[in-house]
């Protein structure tokens, strides 16, 4: 197919070739969309990212950065970055982090991160307001295939974080991060709950106190 003439369904997985995926990413109708591709299936996410999604996105990213700085961990973060495994897989996670030995693996000047050339991110985070079922299902399989080390899902509506460690092409639930050593997922969930009653500055101050304990 030389060009996609009809509008593809969004917020669901559809059968598509890699070439059709690339064409969709160039389509101006989808300029505000996020794209995922796995096992010859394409997902275009067009759900509007409102206040709750944006706030949880910020505080989780901020908490991870604070923790890494306090613990003197090597870390570089990416916001809505695109990852390709040419011809077979692609992802645009809400947040992704290179931690430890791979923190500086991606040079400046890189656009799409080609996973045939560079390592996958250490930690991937999806903020799930309207996409929870898919984040727990198909996307989890995608990140297993991409061999990220940890995958977190922030359940916005239920104020929870569902965290997985990934190894041997499979995943299992965890309560404490390994890539951010000793960071308890429950602590981040409490930070999320606090954002429902107070502002981010006060939550940040509370996090710093907890990190020092």
What do you see in this structure?
With 213 residues, this protein is an alpha+beta fold. The chain folds into 2 domains: 1-46, no CATH class; 50-211, Alpha-Beta Complex (tt1808, chain A), CATH 3.90.1570. Helices cover 31% and strands 26% of the residues. It is built from 6 helices and 12 strands. It has helices spanning 18-26, 51-70, 132-136, 138-146, 185-195, 200-211; strands at 13-15, 34-38, 41-45, 75-79, 83-85, 89-91, 95-99, 113-114, 123-128, 150-155, 160-167, 170-173. The strands form 2 sheets. It has a 6-stranded mixed sheet, sandwiched between helices. A hairpin with a 3-residue loop joins strand 5 (83-85) and strand 6. Helix 2 (51-70) crosses helix 5, helix 2 packs parallel to helix 6 and helix 5 (185-195) runs antiparallel to helix 6 (200-211). The relative contact order is 0.13.
**Taking all residues together, what is the mean pLDDT?**
94
Oligomeric state = single chain
CA(first)-CA(last) distance: 59 Å
Which residue ranges are poorly predicted, with pLDDT under 50 across at least 5 consecutive positions? 1-5
Count the E strands: 12
CATH architecture of the largest domain: Alpha-Beta Complex
How many domains comprise the coordinates?
Answer: 2
Q: What is the global morphology?
A: globular
Helix content: 25-40%
The SSE order reads EHEEHEEEEEEHHEEEHH
How much beta, percentage-wise? 25-35%
Q: What's the name of the CATH homologous superfamily of the largest domain?
A: tt1808, chain A
């Amino acid at each position: 197919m030389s060009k996609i003439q009809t509008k593809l369904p969004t917020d669901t997985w559809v059968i598509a070739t890699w070439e059709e995926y690339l064409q969709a990413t160039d389509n101006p109708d989808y300029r505000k969309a996020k794209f995922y591709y796995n096992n010859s299936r394409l997902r275009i996410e067009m759900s509007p990212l409102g206040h709750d999604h944006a706030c949880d996105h910020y505080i989780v990213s901020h908490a991870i950065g604070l923790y890494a700085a306090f613990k003197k961990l090597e870390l570089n973060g990416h916001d809505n970055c695109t990852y390709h495994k040419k011809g077979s897989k692609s992802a645009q996670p809400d947040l992704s982090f290179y931690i430890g030995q791979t923190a500086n693996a991606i040079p400046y000047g890189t656009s799409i991160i080609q996973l045939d050339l560079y390592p996958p991110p250490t930690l991937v985070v999806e903020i799930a307001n309207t996409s929870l079922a898919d984040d727990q299902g198909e996307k989890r399989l995608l990140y297993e295939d991409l061999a990220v080390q940890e995958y977190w899902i922030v359940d916005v509506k239920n104020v929870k974080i569902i965290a997985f460690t990934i190894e041997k092409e499979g995943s299992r639930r965890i309560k404490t991060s390994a890539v951010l050593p000793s960071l308890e997922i429950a602590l981040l969930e409490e930070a999320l709950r606090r954002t429902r009653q107070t502002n981010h500055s006060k939550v940040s101050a509370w996090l710093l106190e907890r990190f020092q304990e």
